[in-house]
Design brief:
two-stranded parallel ribbon, about 10% strand, single chain
């Protein structure tokens, strides 16, 4: 079951244009989907980087600038 979700995630990432060697920023809340996306990226040969989601205490404009700086 988990492996099928990982393969499906890898397929979805590939269809979205992610290629082996690409760095993929994963900005998702903690969930099973985050794990399968992370592992799907690895299975595809991409390099996933987890980025925490914004908290209620952070200014969203500041958060956006910081995430954009990573790209």
């Amino acid at each position: 079951d988990l492996w099928r979700e990982i393969v499906a995630s890898a397929s979805g990432l590939r269809a979205a244009g992610v290629a082996p060697g690409d760095v993929l920023l994963v900005v998702m809340g903690h969930s099973r989907r985050m794990i399968t996306t992370y592992l799907g990226a690895i299975a595809l040969g991409a390099v996933p980087a987890l980025v925490s989601t914004p908290t209620p205490r952070i200014d969203l404009a500041l958060y956006r600038r910081r995430v954009e700086a990573l790209v």
